[in-house]
Design a protein that fits this description.
With 254 residues, the chain is of the alpha/beta class. Helix content is 43%, strand content 22%. The radius of gyration is 19 Å and the shape is globular. The mean pLDDT is 93.
């Protein structure tokens, strides 16, 4: 569904590279997590998929089509995109936010309203309660759910998630992680998730790609990375969830 072939991005004419020589495929229906330290090229890679950042070199395909040959606005309307900071229009209602892309696509208003209500229910927000509520009256978790609903409004086959849970409290984060994975499976989405949290990647992803200094240093299913990190950075990233699990075990054993 998604293929990056020899992809690179430089912001200074080739003197330095945010991403270089990146090869990655994402199968239809797969959830792939991109993980790495800050500055490793995760978000740049994600933004190149929907051409918010054009690649300096290489080729990117979505659904078998070279994205360089597709109108960028049309491309983005066919790809759901969820940011950590959500980006809801603050002076609009929840319903208006969720229905943004369908209205841009010229859907009849009756169909837009039906889709808004369907998606609000899907992400766990009661439509009569939330449809006409101002976006500024939402909690962080509610706003993030609306952001997911908006990303799915035009029935895109591809969903991009840029650290969507990082700013949430632990309980809300846990609930939204579970809901997002369930939506991915239920809707048959092809999903790419950027995260800095290895526990989150292990929990949600079918496959994990670890980036370091703009290059992929390891890919594999969660079980494969746990069994064989294969790179010092992967081993370091796995230390945090293992340490947390050991700490919890020790506390419970007291």
């Amino acid at each position: 569904m998604i293929a990056l072939r020899g992809v690179g991005r430089s912001f200074d004419g080739g003197r330095t590279w945010a991403v270089r020589g990146l090869d990655l495929t994402v199968a239809r229906g797969e959830l792939v997590a991109l993980i790495g330290l800050s500055g490793s090229g995760k978000t740049t890679t994600l933004k190149m998929i929907n051409r918010l950042v054009p690649p300096t070199e290489g080729r990117i395909e979505v659904g078998g089509r070279d994205t360089a040959e597709v109108d960028p606005v049309r491309l983005r309307r066919g790809i759901g995109y969820v940011l950590q900071r959500i980006g809801l229009f603050p002076h609009w209602t929840v319903g208006d936010n969720v229905g943004t892309v369908p209205r841009l696509l010229g859907w009849p208003e009756e169909r837009v309203r039906a889709r808004v209500d369907e998606l609000l229910a899907l992400v766990g927000l009661d439509p009569p309660t939330f449809r006409d509520r101002s976006a500024t009256d939402l909690s962080g978790g509610q706003a993030q759910r609306v952001g997911v609903a908006r990303a799915l409004a035009a029935e895109p086959p591809v969903l991009l998630l840029d650290e969507p849970f990082g700013a949430l409290d632990p309980v809300t984060r846990d609930q939204l992680q579970e809901a997002t994975r369930a939506l991915h499976v239920r809707l048959g989405l092809t999903t790419v998730l950027v995260t800095h949290d290895m526990a989150e990647a292990l929990r949600l992803a079918d496959r994990i790609a670890v980036l370091h200094e703009g290059r992929i240093v390891r890919t594999g299913a969660p079980r494969a990375l746990l069994d064989d990190p294969g790179h010092p950075l992967v081993a370091r990233l796995l230390e945090a969830p293992r340490h947390q699990a050991a700490l919890l075990h020790d506390l419970e054993a007291r």
